[in-house]
Amino acid sequence: MNTPVYLWPSLALAFGLELCAVAAFGVWAFHAGASTSASVALAVGAVLTAALVWGLFASPRAPFSSPVLTPVVTVVFFGAAALALRAAGHPRLAAGFLVLIVINTLLLHLAPAGTTAAEGAAAPSTGGDPTPSSPSSIGPIDDGESRPRQD
Per the structure, how many domains does the chain have? Predict the structure, then answer.
């Protein structure tokens, strides 16, 4: 990935915010439990579920992503994480979390075209190599069988 150096801090912050969102779900679930064992079980389940949802639908290399699905899941994920923080009794932390998400998202989307993390992960640079992609222009296909050399 050819990500410019000036985007690294913003990408690092984005990753940190993703981790904070997963932790926010764990904090909320821990506060929702009636007993210590229930709190721990709920927290572990919430963290695993949040990580699974993020990994499947919103991460840069998500297997189930689309131009519509990924932004919707991202907004719902971070919004729910902020609501979870508020429900756990941390309204100022939730507000600060949302402000950081909005600012960082704007910084990443205002970057020059072709330099965002999603574009870099989805379409790695080929280095300008105009390699033909049609099988007929590549040459003979090696099927793995060794043949005696004919001189």
Answer: 1
